[in-house]
Amino acid sequence: MELHLLKPAEGSVKNRKRVARGQGSGAAGTAGRGHKGDGSRSGSYSKRGFEGGQMPLHRRLPKKGFKNINRVEYVAINIGRLEEIAEKFNVTTINTTNLFELGIISRNDKIKILGSGELTKSLSVSAHAFSESAKLTIEQKGGNVNLV
Fold it and tell me: Does the global pTM surpass 0.90?
C-alpha cells in the first residue's frame, strides 16, 4: 500500500449540487427557493419561534407561576442513610468533603440532614442545614452538629 494509491470507497464522495448556474444544470430558475416572498430573497432569516405569522406556540400557551431566583436547593440525607454511610465506610465524622469523595453528592451541593431513620452510634456531622428532629437525634446519641 502506498499513499498515492489511496482512494475513497466507490460512491462515497459526491460533488456538491451547484444551484442557480444556468438552465442546463437542472437547478436554475428559482434555485429551490420557491416563488417570491421573503424566503426567496438573499439575506432572509426567521426569528426564533416564527411560525409564518401565526401566533407562535410560546405566546399561545398560558403563563403560570414564577421561578424564585433566591431559592436554595438542598440534597436531603436522612439519618438512616448517615448510619449506613458510617458503617459501610467506617467513619465517625461526616461532612461535605467526605460525602463528595465517597461519590454521594456533587462538589457544590448543599446538604440538609433530615430525621428519618435510626441512629445507633455517635457521629460528628457537618452540613448546611438540619431539621429539628435530626439535630435532636444526633445530639441524643452523643454526636455533635456543625452548621457549615
Answer: no
